[in-house]
Design a protein that fits this description.
The protein contains three helices and no strands. The protein has helices spanning 9-12, 23-33, 37-54. This is DNA-binding protein.
């Protein structure tokens, strides 16, 4: 079977794993994915520090 055909309807209509995120959050995550690996690591380090302090 072709792996491209093995997806759920939820995935196809955008109601899968990220369905609980608002559009602004999803857009930001997509933008982070476009960054170079080193830049992503900087963003994640900042996020980790912030979350550690706040949670």
């Amino acid at each position: 079977m072709n792996d491209a055909c093995v997806v759920s309807l939820d995935y196809l209509v955008g109601e899968g794993v990220n369905s609980s995120f608002d559009k602004k959050t999803v857009k930001r995550l997509q933008d982070i994915e476009k960054l170079q690996p080193e830049e992503r690591e900087h963003i994640f380090a900042l996020m980790d520090a912030f979350l550690f302090k706040c949670l």
